[in-house]
Amino acid sequence: MNRSGRRSHLTALLTAMLVCIGLLSLSTAPVWAAAGTITEFSIPPAESDPVGITAGPDGNLWFTTPINEIGRITTKGLVTGFPIPTANSGLFSITAGPDGNLWFTEETSNKIGRITTAGLVTEFPLPTTCGFSGGCQPDGITAGPDGNLWFTELNGNKIGRITTSGTITGFPIPTANSIPFSITAGPDGNLWFTEYNVGIIGRITPSGSITEFHVSPKSSGPFGITAGPDGNLWFTLSFGNSIGRITTGGSSTLFPLPRTCGNRFGCHPEGITAGPDGNVWFAENRGDKIGRITTQ
After folding, report:
1. List of domains in the chain
2. Are 113 and 94 within 8 A, CB to CB?
3. Where are the alpha helices (DSSP H) in the chain?
4. Are 225 and 270 spatial neighbours (Cβ–Cβ below 8 Å)?
5. Is 128 exposed, middle or buried (0-12, 13-18, 19+ CB in 10 A)?
6. Is CB count within 10 Å lower at the N or C end of the chain?
7. Tens digits of residue pLDDT in 160-178
8. C-alpha angle with apex 171: 144 to 66, nearest 5 degrees?
9. Distance in angstroms (rounded) separating the CA atoms of residues 111 and 257
10. Is there a contact between 63 and 74 (Cβ–Cβ < 8 Å)?
């Protein structure tokens, strides 16, 4: 999966997380809310092509760009860019950390970054390159229940853990070439992640013990994952044209989308997040639509 492909995937993820007006339900016709306004804010060329975004502890939004700047935007639309030291770093995902800072992945330069709300950047190189000239390729990142940050290593076939002081530990995934992509904190005190290449959802404890659950055919492409409001984990199958649910005990159920979007691979559901209405929302990358699935 090349960088442009991953960028389009994450764009879909961000759409699912940020759109807050009436969105498409799982019916065949769109249903639009009577209220709700979308406002778009232009950003300077230096902060162009934003990739990841998260809410910061300072009341602002923080985002990554592919040209070595972390962006900060206020709720009024004022944008500030903060350059990071490493050139061509491949900034990707970003999340709020338990220490009041923002943490992000540098998939090309094989590093995890930390930025304070004042804009001070510190980078932490991964201890190995995983045998690849481009490094382990850290991608997804999330805050864990243990006070650390957890991330996926796409090339390294590992789940990584970094303390807020910068100590990095890698935990190999049992299944080879699994391509771990998205990761989220679960309601059970563990971390849950997708294994894009093998049809598996993985669970890792804060101590590093990994359990894998086969949920679909290898070609189905588990992509996004989120903790649902019902105490389960919900995930997308980007090539399986389905939304999946897995309990913390590992029992999974798949819910096929009602249409294929005129594509032999289906609508490509990818990004997914829990909504404030008690449902789960997702982005259809090929269908150009936002979907909603109930949890009951």
Report:
1. 3-293 (2.130.10.10)
2. no
3. 3-18
4. no
5. middle
6. C
7. 999 999 999 999 999 999 9
8. 65
9. 37
10. no
